[in-house]
Amino acid sequence: MARYESVLESIGGTPLIRLTRAAQGLRPRIYVKPEWQNPGGSVKDRAALAMLRQAEADGSLRPGGVVVEVTSGNTGIGLALTAAHLGYRAVIFTSSMIAQEKRDQFAAYGAELRLVDAFVPRDHPDSLRSQGERFVAETPGAWLAQQYDNPANPAAHYTSTGPEVWDDTDGTVTHFVATVGTGGTISGTGRYLKEVSGGRVQVIGADPITSRYSGGDGSQKYIEGAGHFVHPETAVDEWPKSLDLGVIDRYLPVEDQDAIDAVRELARTEGVLAGGSSGVALAAALELAEDLTEDDTVVVLLPDSGRAYLSTYFNDSWLAAGGFTGPAPLTPVEGPTVGDRATPTPLVERDETVAGALRRLDADGHADDGPVLVVYRREGRVLAPHASDILGWTTPARLRGAATVAETVQPLGPRLGTGLPLTAPAVTGWDGGDGSDGDGSLALVLARGRVTGTVSRQALRDQPTAAGPMVSAASGQTAH
Ligand SMILES: Cc1ncc(COP(=O)(O)O)c(C=O)c1O
């Protein structure tokens, strides 16, 4: 057992754990590296400590200073614990989408949390980054960690994570699999492993399928931490300087549902409770292992624990609300579901011409009063859209005579998972039985986290027809 003189010394030095049941039938040895064994509960403790120490060394953070970061959570936790230990004030700007458990952890370390829920491009004055930068400009002694562009982030992994993987496999590692957020983990660890092995170790970026890194359309995903999302109105898509593209041999794209399945399965079969980005890494590693041999050793970095996601990826109600399924059946559903009443709904892009949109809808024989979803344009859409890309709905009747698609947009009602029973509170709460059918009378229907159609208030109230379901829960279809 190791003995440390401070909590900061205990950062790093995480073990490798061999997968047995989860790797059954696969030829290579597969080890996971559980980074939640760091004191703040994630891989980001390493980068946080290294960035803060570097800032002290170069004078950008002085005694009495303020540690500030814009973060999806884990880097903020690493900075909060480091700042608490060293006596700095910490102010963290983060998305209001992060799990409640993570918010509470900030507070526990005495850090101040600024929640930002603006869905705007990065260079917009309301964006997370802009708000963080403004705070730093206005606050004397404030230092912004800037994990996306801070060389101390990948350097932390070059000097700690990389050597640990190499030493703990006695130099037998052949493949290293990690997700890519800021790119710090994969760049630093990957570069070390490449150098020490003379280029033999293959470095694989496990990436959410819509992430820009692996060529996705940049639309939102449900997995926190991994991948690169861009707001559709982003003028210049900036990639982090912490990411060294030359180190990554290949990417394996993973759907949110498959990542969720992978971590739920891992908990049930191995007793290892990992978070969502770990699921992305694990799903990619298991796919990779199909083509490897007994001579190969795969190391999969698991960034944080599933304990931070008990209310999301491990919660049946949360999964059902997003139209996700479970590897083991979710709580059984009796009676009709939202999917039984949903209907596939065509898409028009906000910036396409009204004439063009009408020509397409008319050619498809779409009813004049039939709903049409208005979406942001995305290059190379790979899946049905994410709900955050939908601006609202319209109809061909509304489009006729309008100058732009945008001016016809009406607000939507709630988002409903395809498998939700009609008796679920999310459904009955919306279909309040008040008979109103005005704005917001159409809900988005989600399957596997993506928008596959719509359901009207009226359709939820109707008794089922003899013809049966209008769109099956499994079909996941959407027109476009
Ligand atoms: C849960 C989680 N997974 C993965 C990552 C990606 O790690 P990196 O930023 O080193 O690429 C992060 C980064 O914040 C994270 O919080």
From TrEMBL:
Segments crossing the lipid bilayer: none
SUPFAM superfamilies per UniProt: Tryptophan synthase beta subunit-like PLP-dependent enzymes
Listed cofactors: pyridoxal 5'-phosphate
InterPro entries per UniProt: Cys_Synth/Cystath_Beta-Synth, P-phosphate_BS, TrpB-like_PALP, TrpB-like_PALP_sf
One matching Pfam family: PALP
Residue ranges of coiled coil: none
Domain of life: Bacteria
Domain Tryptophan synthase beta chain-like PALP: 9-304
Region Disordered: start-end pairs: 455-480
Swiss-Prot/TrEMBL keywords: Pyridoxal phosphate
Record-given protein name: PLP-dependent cysteine synthase family protein
Taxonomic placement: Bacteria, Bacillati, Actinomycetota, Actinomycetes, Kitasatosporales
